[in-house]
Design a protein that fits this description.
The protein has about 100 residues and is mainly alpha-helical. The chain has four helices and no strands. The protein has helices at about 1-5, 10-35, 45-65, 70-90.
């Protein structure tokens, strides 16, 4: 409902952005920041890492939303995205 109503109301648009974009990226950045501190991830800007991680997921959610017959395709692409992100940012071996 928010994705439809956000075009009709500035307040709904603000809530949509806060819930589905700002909070998601902020929370993920905090996770990456902690993973960097603990030596699991390479040193990089955690906010940019969160954006690079989340943007494809957000796109997949929007692209495949409501298309049940494409679920397996979406999951496969999501898995490849996560594997590639891991290869780029993981520091050494998993501890």
């Amino acid at each position: 409902m928010l994705s439809i109503e956000k075009y009709k109301s500035k307040e709904i648009d603000r809530i949509y952005r806060e819930v589905y974009i700002d909070t998601a990226i902020s929370n993920q950045a905090q996770i990456f920041e902690e993973m960097i501190k603990q030596g699991y991830m390479r040193k990089a800007d955690p906010k940019i890492m969160a954006l690079q991680f989340f943007a494809p997921i957000f796109l997949l959610l929007n692209r495949y939303d409501g298309i049940a017959e494409k679920e397996a395709e979406a999951i496969e692409i999501l898995g490849k995205h996560i594997e590639q992100f891991d290869k780029i940012y993981r520091e050494g071996e998993i501890k």
